[in-house]
Specification:
extended; about 290 residues; mainly alpha; two-stranded antiparallel ribbon; disordered N terminus; about 10% strand
Length: about 290
């Protein structure tokens, strides 16, 4: 299991020394409540990311985020590069889970969460410095630019050429092939094909997963220290379905067409609703299973 991004790197916390005030003005109670609400929503989203199959092997996820590339040179001197990634469907589901973190309008947004962390950790300079560095790196990796390479292609027959950064290709896959169908992005990235977009997106998706899980781990640390006062249930409520098979008691009843159903799930059936032949009758409403 990984350690939080700041554990073991913060002398003021390790020794019990108090950090200095970072000079931030005291926000209103409404703003502080919003900070907590943002962090609670982030915790729920980050726990879903943490529960993804790609995160089951932490070392493999970190390696994936570094865009692993194998270079092979044959005896004849031919150089070949090789990349091995998880199936597209697996990465696609991971992209769907991290995508809300990209949105500045979503309550669980990564940058909103960092802003809240900066407030709650304002008395610890090293924590504030880490949050600022994390913010800068997030913006660098998720906004238009070059993460590691630019890809150039050309058609010898037509003379047409195209040039895109890996970050642009990654976003074309996320917003063109996966969570949206951005026709403009797809058209711009079309010369590189689906494989070019996917190969650029995998490391970015993996990196966002790493960033989210690291921040989640740090929030757990702060919560245990009593510095956040978030609702305990956001760390405990079910966010991942471990099984997709269910079996539960059911009532089967019939009534003449037009007979109104019970007013709500706690209202008993009227006499017009007769039990299906061969089933056990009961007038008690179910409080644990839905009616249909």
């Amino acid at each position: 299991m990984m350690l939080g991004p700041l554990l073991g790197r913060n002398p003021s916390r390790d020794t019990g020394q108090a950090g200095g005030d970072m000079g931030m003005g005291q926000p209103s109670e409404e703003v502080i409540a919003r900070y907590r609400a943002n962090l609670e929503q982030f915790v729920l989203r980050a726990r879903r990311i943490e529960g993804h199959s790609l995160a089951a092997d932490w070392d493999a996820l970190v390696s994936l985020a570094s865009a692993p590339l194998k270079l092979r040179i044959s005896e004849g001197g031919e150089a070949r590069m090789r990349q091995e990634f998880p199936p597209e469907e697996v990465v696609e589901s991971a992209a769907a889970r991290v995508r809300p973190l990209l949105l500045e309008t979503d309550a669980c947004g990564y940058l909103k969460s960092l802003k809240a962390v900066t407030y709650f950790c304002r008395s610890v300079p090293s924590d504030v410095a880490w949050a600022k560095a994390a913010k800068a790196e997030w913006k660098t990796r998720t906004h238009e630019g070059v993460l590691g390479y630019r890809l150039m292609v050309g058609d010898l027959a037509t003379g047409d050429t195209a040039d895109m950064s890996d970050q642009e290709l990654a976003m074309a896959w996320i917003y063109g092939d996966v969570v949206h169908h951005d026709a403009e992005r797809l058209q711009e990235a079309d010369p590189f094909g689906l494989s070019g977009r996917f190969r650029a997106a995998v490391p970015l998706v993996a990196w966002m997963m790493v960033a989210a899980i690291e921040l989640l781990t740090f929030l757990r640390f702060l919560q245990e220290r009593g510095e956040l006062a978030l609702r305990a249930e956001v760390f405990e409520t079910e966010v991942i379905l471990r099984s997709t098979e269910w079996e539960y008691p059911a009532q089967i009843r019939t009534a003449p067409v037009g007979t109104p159903p019970p007013a709500d799930a706690l209202t008993s059936y009227s006499d017009e609703w007769a039990p299906w032949p061969g089933t056990a009758p009961t007038t008690k409403p179910s409080t644990t299973h839905p009616r249909s």
